[in-house]
Amino acid sequence: MKYLLSVIAILWGINVYAQLSPAPQGLDNYKCIDTTRFEIHYSFKFKNHSSQKQYNEDRRVIQVGRSVIKDYSEIIYHYDSLATENFKKGLSTSNNPNITYPCEIYSYPLEKRRHEKYRMILNAGVLCYPSMWEDLNWTYSLDETMVLYNYTCNKATTKYAGREYTAWYTLDVPISYGPYKFFGLPGLIIKIEESTGMYIWEMYSLSVSATPIHIYQYEKEQKCTEESAARTIHRMMTTPMTFLSSAGSRVLVRQNDGSFGSPAKDEKGMPYEPIELR
């Protein structure tokens, strides 16, 4: 399977991240690691940095199995599915035009371990690494309630990876696993928000399911440590042109006169604040 790209033309006046979404991947190489018991869908609004005015928005799917919890982007999966069919027919495929959170998270609560697959921009590859498991300490505010999506919710707060979060959970649905790496509440998380408003998850769909939970083998996977992945992602997000050039892609940027040329060697860094601050 070949993905293009020896030359990448970037229109600098347009949102750079929107032009640099990870290339779609084929879904032919996989194995089943569990069976879903519940499937929960969340909208996920997030910002790449605190001064960003508008939110990016992803749709996350949480598959809750007996031993595995998988969290992935429904939008990325959609474009991967299209690509898989197009590749079989020898056709080109559309890139994902959305800014998503390009990370799959596999949590194994019985073993207290976690594994992540983070897609880098365009065809730069996929970082695969074990990540730290951390039990969450929740503080409950039993006298504070709110009705969300017809569920009566209670409030709880926690700290995780250098950030503070407020969760609204319902005892009507006794599922203790929520989006991202949040778990341990006595009911389903309906909404959870980071204290500065940079990250907001809201549940919009819940179903009983018995579908397989798959882990996919992607092209250009790179095994690394969590610390190494964080450094690579930071470099990619702050200096994407330099990052792509170092990955072997020739990058062209539109100049003021409308022509395309090589980016400046001293690329000005773009603001970026990771979701985990540790």
UniProtKB/TrEMBL annotation:
<dbReference type="Pfam" id="PF09697">
    <property type="entry name" value="Porph_ging"/>
</dbReference>
<feature type="signal peptide">
    <location>
        <begin position="1"/>
        <end position="18"/>
    </location>
</feature>
<keyword id="KW-0732">Signal</keyword>
<feature type="region of interest" description="Disordered">
    <location>
        <begin position="258"/>
        <end position="278"/>
    </location>
</feature>
<dbReference type="InterPro" id="IPR005901">
    <property type="entry name" value="GLPGLI"/>
</dbReference>
<protein>
    <recommendedName>
        <fullName>GLPGLI family protein</fullName>
    </recommendedName>
</protein>
<feature type="compositionally biased region" description="Basic and acidic residues">
    <location>
        <begin position="264"/>
        <end position="278"/>
    </location>
</feature>
